[in-house]
Amino acid sequence: HNEDREPFLKRFKTEDNSLEPIARMMLNLETLHVMDESGYDYIEPEKLKYYARFFHGLQHCKNLSELNVSSDFGDYANYTPNIKKMRVTGNADYPLEYMDWIAKLEKLEILKLDMSRFYEEEIDVKEFTEKMFGKLTNLKSLELVDCSLMYEPDFLVNIREIIPSLETLIMTSESDFSN
Fold it and tell me: 75 to each of 63, 81, 164, how far by Cα in Å?
């Protein structure tokens, strides 16, 4: 029975309002890495909601320029406008549209998409990636690690048009994902 764990589980069902002032006090915070207790980058969305007020408070951290998060961070992207370097770790197959929040980070210079696997659906990849990357006029480096975009000809053939500021493109396959 899980009675001994019940208070812990209940804690993650709502957000904690006391966390926002804590984030507001972190004036010198430069890097934030959001991960679960086992060290994995992926945090279940319902657990991530617990920290919603903390993420809201991050908008006052003017020095915060680096972020390492899971693909579920999209609801909080508006609170991190000064991000210049970001690593996004995926967790499973999801629609490409799920990553549209990256377009909000207009100061982004370095982006790493790690394990971002998008499942097949009727989508115009070129059109969507233009929306996703089009506002990222400072993006100089894009690293794709086991990312579906590595295998999308409509993206790769048009990458100079989609991301004209891009200087470095790194594509790495660390699994047997290409099959």
Answer: 21, 13, 27
Alpha-carbon gap, residue 46 to 66, rounded angstroms: 23
pLDDT tens column, 61-83: 999 999 998 777 888 899 998 99
| Sequence-ordered list of residues with C-beta below 8 angstroms from that of 125, at least 6 positions apart, any chain | 96, 152, 154, 155
**pLDDT reported for residue 170:** 96
Residues 46-59 have pLDDT tens digits of: 777 888 888 999 99
Q: Are 88 and 71 in contact (CB under 8 A)?
A: yes
Q: How far apart are CA 133 and CA 130, in angstroms?
A: 5
Alpha-carbon torsion (163, 164, 168, 173), positive or negative = positive
Angle at 23 between CA 49 and CA 15, to 5 degrees: 20
CB 120 within 8 A of CB 88: no
DSSP strands (E only) in 9-148: 31-33, 66-70, 85-89, 93-94, 110-114, 117-118, 141-145
